[in-house]
Amino acid sequence: xxxxxxxxxxxxxxxxxxxxxxxxxxxxxxxxxxxxxxxxxxxxxxxxxxxxxxxxxxxxxxxxxxxxxxxxxxxxxxxxxxxxxxxxxxxxxxxxxxxxxxxxxxxxxxxxxxxxxxxxxxxxxxxxxxxxxxxxxxxxxxxxxxxxxxxxxxxxxxxxxxxxxxxxxxxxxxxxxxxxxxxxxxxxxxxxxxxxxxxxxxxxxxxxxxxxxxxxxxxxxxxxxxx
Length: 227
What we know:
The protein has 227 residues and is of the alpha+beta class. Helices cover 46% and strands 19% of the residues. It folds into three domains: 2-109, PAS domain (Beta-Lactamase, 2-Layer Sandwich); 115-163, no CATH class; 169-223, Homeodomain-like (Arc Repressor Mutant, subunit A, Orthogonal Bundle), CATH 1.10.10. It is built from ten helices and five strands.
């Protein structure tokens, strides 16, 4: 079933973090010839080390606590080497004795819906306001005024269309903007932090690493290997 869904990646890992199974979309993104080639590999065999470390930390949390990691906003890599965002959930797998023996991971790509998909123009105006003012604090009253919705209604619609709360969506916009500055310019990271709504370089670095597994400097080096 998952093999028919190009925007959903599915995998199963054992307790050592080795892949036991991968969906076709995951195989393609990892540039593997077939599903069989994934068996026995780990994230460190397939992804840049900082990303693999983030995935391994998530896995270890599941193994240690026996509790799922739900709706984690993660950076992903596409077959053309472009980066994007996905929402990931990792569920523990148990044996007959109740011991955690592995995990199942499902990641769904986050696509930015077009204006026509946003139900009405007022809501679209509010989302565009967030894009235009991403450096500013989240202004719920302004979003309510533009959208004609209450704060609760606006959040429900954001979660329905973007799978993110307004605050989480704004953070994603800021990280996206910072990533573009990092790749397309030589601006210092501290200056990029100010341009993208973070209080300082340490604030940008902390949020950037929490979401991507990479520091801003590592992300720049990954996407501009010649520098």
